[in-house]
Every structure is written in structure tokens, then in C-alpha cells.
Amino acid sequence: MPGFEERAECEAPPEEVWKLVYDPARFADWWAGWERVDGDADGAVTRYDARWPDFAYPSHVETRHERGSVVVSCLLSDIAHEWAIEPPPAGCGLRVTVRVPEDEAGRLPAVRDDVRRSLDRPVAVAEAAR
Question: Most buried of the four, 56, 67, 82, 101, by CB within 10 Å?
């Protein structure tokens, strides 16, 4: 399965970054292209892209507390993003691992571009909050 990893370092405490990446209601605050998110308590969310605001993308969000990560899977494309908090020397690190199904491999450059535009945003928001 095609995929990639990207990382960023943050001077804010891990708790501040976690508040952003585990809460689907806050995804639109930092995830590039996400205009709004509707969700419920069982992990089902529907996201709306800024480019196509009337098209719903059903997704599933799974929080993995023991790993310090959140997996966001698009139910239309099966593209999965795992956002994880890692411990660097100071503050925390944020790593995203993306898995793309073979039949969606042509979208890999666009997905990577969205991730690169998104990765620094939760870091900036968390650092500004401290």
C-alpha cells in the first residue's frame, strides 16, 4: 500500500497538540482544505472540503490513547491518516503517517501536499495557546 510519513517539532507541551488532533470538531481549525466537520460520539464524522462545500466525505476517527495517536479514515477513498504525538528533547513531535490504497495511488501527490500544508498548523495553534 503506498504511503508516506511527515514530521514537525513543537515547543508546546504534548497536551496542547493532543487537544487539537484528537478532536474532530477542531480539524477545520488546522487541517488544510477542511471547511467544517459534523460528528458524533461513536467516531463517525462527515467532513466538507473548502473546494466542494456541498459534498460530504464520511470518515471515521479512532483515538488510540495508548499510542498517543488518532487515525482518520475517509470511508469513500480508504485513505487513512494517523496523527501521533512523539517525545522529542523539548515540547513534542507530531508525526503523520498516511496510507493510500493502490487504486487511489494517483492521488498521492495531492494528499502529500495537503498534509504538508496541514502539519505546521496544529503546531502553530498549540504554541500560540501556551
Answer: 82
